[in-house]
């Protein structure tokens, strides 16, 4: 049963911006109303500029979400045309392949 959700931002860091705080709070409320425990991965809310400049941090969050035994489901807050920049960091030394396990993604 899915109880714990880890939220990642694989493209834009918009969920870390103050002008969408109300939307993030509404989304969190809806997930919690479904009985889910929600956690944001380390860099998910760092903001648009940070995540644009640090695709390696976005990749690190995804790897940690797959590694983390306390996360049942990985939810992408946003994906888009910048996600391709994570590829070198996900496949370097087969990092993603080493941690992928059965999780809802």
TrEMBL record:
Record-linked InterPro entries: Class_I_gatase-like, LdcA_N, Peptidase_S66_N, S66_fam
Domain of life: Bacteria
Transmembrane segments: none
Pfam families in UniProt: Peptidase_S66 (PF02016)
SUPFAM superfamilies in the record: Class I glutamine amidotransferase-like
Database matches in PANTHER family: LD-CARBOXYPEPTIDASE C-TERMINAL DOMAIN-CONTAINING PROTEIN, MURAMOYLTETRAPEPTIDE CARBOXYPEPTIDASE
Protein name: LD-carboxypeptidase domain protein
Organism of derivation: Streptococcus anginosus SK1138
